[in-house]
Specification:
The protein is α/β, with parallel strands linked by helices and 376 residues long. It has 11 helices and 19 strands. It is globular and about 65 Å long. The two termini are 28 Å apart.
């Protein structure tokens, strides 16, 4: 019997772990290499769209995410000052019936932990910073900063917007600073002093916005994230701290509900919002990119992680039953299947008008990565 295909996955974020879990479903041997020494539970929320939940369901994670996440009635879009509703995108049971899966609001760390639970610990190697890739007679050799190396039949670069795999494969321009920054944090809802907030609201200002929602099913934790111009701040770090007084000043004059959430906010993180054009091609031989490494998303549709999770499902279908000689063709098929969708989401997100007015969302949330036709 021929040995299983072996795939090395670079990056143990959402896309990398989802890819590992999906490939294991179709009998592929995987090993995930992550440069970080440990996983950190960063204080950030994440919206898990119905389209991403369909993938998580097949990975056996739906019930876990339902238990840990908030099930909102809607994503409500309101005017920054008057509070007038621009468009109330109803979720809950009606959207679940329409799109085939729930829409959930979660702590990013909870989703990451769920995906990690679908991949045995021994298949994730931390402290492995990639420095080189070389084609050999045995396959693709990965070289790491600590002097170690590994060989696999194929490599998937799921290592994000600053992908080392991408930089090794292609001559690409650096990520572009958008001139905008974001504050974000989660904090206990008890700090609101008994006051409640809407399930999920995006407050649209003239040149800035703030999104606020619960991330726990018992409404015990609140998340907020902003976007606003600040052309001189270029630190792109999940751990960089911001000044909560500056945050409050930035949204002075916004609706009182925004004011009460910011008044209760104890501290915030701050990061520069970067952007990068999609690549002309994602693969080179037996190495392909996935997720933000090839189609990075601005955060304005809450679909960046969802696109990587969809990628994982489609890639597993393209590699199902493929031997090492068929990898390059499978990677081309993967890109051909996914390119139009990810480009459309990338461009729509960049425009930052998603749900600002009545919007047809079915093309996003109705997508099923397990059944969408594969490219010829």
């Amino acid at each position: 019997m021929a040995r299983p295909l072996s795939v090395a996955i670079v990056g143990a974020g959402m896309g990398g772990l989802a890819t590992a879990a999906a490939l294991r479903r179709v009998g592929v041997d995987v090993m995930v290499y992550e440069q970080a020494a440990q996983f950190a539970r960063i204080g950030a929320g994440i919206q898990i769209g119905c389209n991403a939940m369909k993938v998580l369901r097949e990975l056996g994670l739906e019930e876990r995410m339902r238990r840990q996440s908030f099930y909102p009635r809607s994503w409500n879009n309101r005017d920054w000052k008057s509070g007038d509703i621009k468009f109330d995108m109803i979720f809950g049971e009606s959207a679940e019936e329409k799109f085939g899966a729930p829409y959930l609001l979660a702590h990013r760390g909870d989703l990451h932990a769920a995906l990690a639970s679908a991949v045995p610990d021994e298949l994730v190697k931390l402290n492995h910073k990639l420095v080189g890739l070389d084609a050999t007679g045995e396959g693709v050799r990965l070289s790491f900063a600590d002097g170690s190396s590994a060989v696999a039949d194929a490599v998937v670069g799921a290592d994000g917007v600053h992908s080392t795999v991408r930089d090794i494969l292609f001559d690409t321009a650096p990520a572009k600073f958008t001139g905008r920054i974001a504050y974000r944090t989660t904090y206990p809802a008890t700090l609101l002093g008994g006051k409640t907030i809407d399930d999920c609201t995006k407050w649209w200002g003239e040149d800035r916005h703030i999104v606020i929602y619960y991330v726990k099913p018992d409404r015990s934790e609140v998340y907020l994230v902003t976007s606003q111009p600040e052309p001189d701040f270029r630190i792109e770090s999940w751990s960089a701290k911001g000044d909560v007084r500056d945050l409050r000043a930035s949204f002075e004059g916004f609706h009182p509900e925004v004011g009460k959430v910011l008044a209760a906010c104890p501290d915030v993180h701050k990061w520069a919002i970067m952007d990068r054009e999609a690549l002309d091609r994602w693969a080179d031989g037996k190495v392909t990119l996935l997720g933000d490494a090839c189609h990075p998303m601005t955060p304005y549709m809450a679909q960046g992680a969802a696109m990587a999770i969809e990628d994982a499902a489609v890639l597993s279908r393209c590699l199902d039953g493929v031997d090492r000689d068929g990898v390059a063709d499978a990677f081309r098929r993967f890109e051909a299947t996914r390119r139009a969708r990810t480009t459309r989401v990338q461009e729509t997100s960049r425009a930052n008008i998603w749900l600002k007015e009545r919007t047809d969302t079915s093309w996003v949330y109705g997508y099923d990565a397990w059944s969408v036709p594969l490219a010829a």
